[in-house]
Amino acid sequence: MRELVCLAPDPWQSVPTRTQQLMSRMQGAEVLYFEPPEPRGGKEHKKPGRKTRPGVTVYTLPPVPTMDERKKLRFQHGRRRAAEFILEILRKRGVREPTIWCATPAAVHLLDFLPYRGLVYDCGRYWTGFPPAWESDLAIQADLVFAASEGLKDRLTPCSNNIAVVENGCNFPMFARTDIEAPEETLAAGRPLLGYAGTLWADLDYGPVFTAAAAHPDWWFMLVGRQEDSPGLRRLKTMERVILADRHPLIEVPDYIHQWDVCMDLRRGGNASDVCPGRVFEYLAAGKPVARHSFPGQLEDFSSGIVYQSDELHGFVAACERAMQENSPWLQKRRRDLGEHAAWDRRSELVRKLMEGNMLL
Fold this sequence. Notes:
The chain is an alpha/beta fold and 361 residues long. The chain has helices at 18-23, 72-93, 132-141, 150-156, 172-176, 184-188, 207-215, 231-236, 253-257, 278-285, 313-325, 329-341, 344-357, and strands spanning 2-7, 29-35, 50-53, 56-60, 99-102, 118-123, 144-147, 163-165, 193-197, 220-224, 242-246, 262-265, 290-293, 307-310.
C-alpha cells in the first residue's frame, strides 16, 4: 500500500475541508495527515495519532517559535522541530519514501528534511498571508499541481507545466436527499425565505443582506453556521426578519437549504477570488436557485439561470428577485446534475487517476 504524507493547512474538523474530503477518498493509500502546528504550550502533539477515517491517521505538529522568516534562527529551529517530528512518525511506521501532499505553501520549508518519492501541491485558495516565494518554490518542486480554479492555474503556470484544475465539490448524496425534515426555525419564518449556509466569518460581506432587506421589508433571511463576531453580525442580530441559526451538524444543513426559496453566496474580505466555494455546489445538489454576490470583474461560473450573479449590491437584489420568480423543473434538474458532477467522489477519482498517471500513487 502506498503511503501519503499530507501537510495540511487546517486542523481535522467536523465540517470537512477540501483537504479532508480528498484525503478521505485516497483508496489504496495510507494517509498520514499532519495538522498545522498547535499554539505554544499545546500538548496535542504528544498524543498518539488518531484514526479519523479508514486509512487516515491524524497527527498534530508541535508548536513552532515563529512563522516569520525574518527571525531566521527561531524560524529555522521551528521548521527543524516540525520535520524531526514527522521523521520520527515515519520511522515508527516504517515509511521510507512516501508521496507528499502539500496543501499549504508553508510546507515548502519542510521538504529539504523529508524523504519522498513524489510531491503534489494542491492549491485550494489564494494565499495572501504568505510570501509569494513560498508558493512559487513549492509549485516549482511539485511533480503535479492541482488548482481549485482557472485563476489559480493561471497564477501558477509560470512555476509548473503540470497543472490540473480540480474545483471544490460537495457531498452530493447528503444534499440531494429527499427525506427532509423542516427545522423549527424555518417553520417559524415567513416567506419568501433567503438563506446562507456556512461560517459567518468576521470579514464576511453582509452588505447584500442589508440592501435586500431594505429593498424588500417583507423578505426573511436565515443564516446557518458558526458565528465570528463582527459589526455586521451584531447589526444582523438587531434586525426583525433575520434568523441566525448558529452551527448545526452537517447532516442537518440540507434540511435548512431545502426550505429556502433562494440560497445566497456572500463574498469574504476585499481580496478577489474566482474559487467557487463548496456551498454553491451544495445548493446546486439540492436543486435550489442561487444568488451570488461576486467580485467585480469575476466571470460567471455557470450559465445564465443556473446561478444568478452580480458584483453590485442592487444587482444582487435583482438577482434574488429573478431567482425567486423562477419556476422551472428543468433548471432544478440541471442544478442537481451539476451538483452530482461536483461530488467529492468524482473530484477524488480525477485526482487519483492523475496521480496514478504521474506514478505518484
